[in-house]
Amino acid sequence: MKKLMIFTCIILVHTLSAWTQTSIIIKLGATPRSGSFKHYMIVNRNNPREEFKFSTLQVKPQFYAGVSARLQMRTPFFLEAGMTYTEKTSLYQVNYRMPTETNPAEMVMSEKEKILLLPVNIGVSLGKIDITSGLSAMKTLTKAKELTHLQGFHQDDNAIRVGWQMGARYAIGRTMLGIEYQGTLNREGQGMYVNKQSLEQNNVPGNFVFSVQFGF
Question: What pLDDT is recorded for position 17?
């Protein structure tokens, strides 16, 4: 019984110690519009009447809101984990080789996603500057896609994707100004098909996120 009480006390001490070294961070961020993609592909080569050129036109500005917990490790290192919500709108361009009434020469189709990110970072504090790097899991909660109007379009079920991020932030009191690059291990168009032809392109999405963060 005595050993159990000692063990319980040790666990409580470690838990309280960890809690006192934990802080909460609220994050609000935005990323600029990205465009001028040079990659495209030819779809339906075996059917000239349905053949078209497919490309990503642009990704509209995104806004982010999130919360994370920071656990101070041995100075100057820390561990940070949390969740972030964002909405992403991508525009795709479709150019038909032989336009018709139902398939005009050029069409712009949108894809709107509501995404939840679960980032885990390890960081180092250098005075007022924090440098972080880590991995994140990304899950699309809902998706509205105009590409479904393309004959023969199919998309795989929304699976959890893996991404990575690296950034820095500067502290002004409890407020922090940050910049972070977010990348993904999935290519643009991965998991989308027209008549069983993959719409996967050569470009790998990535963007800079500018943020204001508040520590508590």
Answer: 47
Topology of domain 23-215 in CATH is Porin (2.40.160)
Instruction: Pull the structure tokens for residue 27.
Output: 């994050």
Which residues, in sequence order, are CB contacts of 177 under 8 Å at separation 6+? 169, 170, 211, 212, 213
What's the confidence (pLDDT) of residue 20? 52
Q: Among 213, 211, 208, 158, which Cα is nearest to 183's?
A: 208
* Distance separating alpha carbons of residues 29 and 120, to the nearest angstrom: 17
Which one-letter amino acid corresponds to residue 105? A
What is residue 8's predicted lDDT score, i.e. its pLDDT? 45
With H, G, I as helix, E, B as strand and everything else as coil, classify residue 21: coil
CB neighbour list of residue 185: distance below 8 Å, 6 or more residues apart:
161, 162, 163, 164, 204
Omega cis (within 30) before 119: no
Nearest-angstrom CA–CA distance, 32 and 39: 20
User: Which stretches does DSSP call E strand in the chain?
Assistant: 22-31, 34-35, 40-43, 52-59, 62-72, 77-96, 106-126, 129-145, 153-155, 161-172, 175-184, 192-194, 197-198, 206-215
pTM reported for the whole predicted model: 0.83
Q: Enumerate residue ranges in the chain where pLDDT < 70.
A: 1-20, 35-38
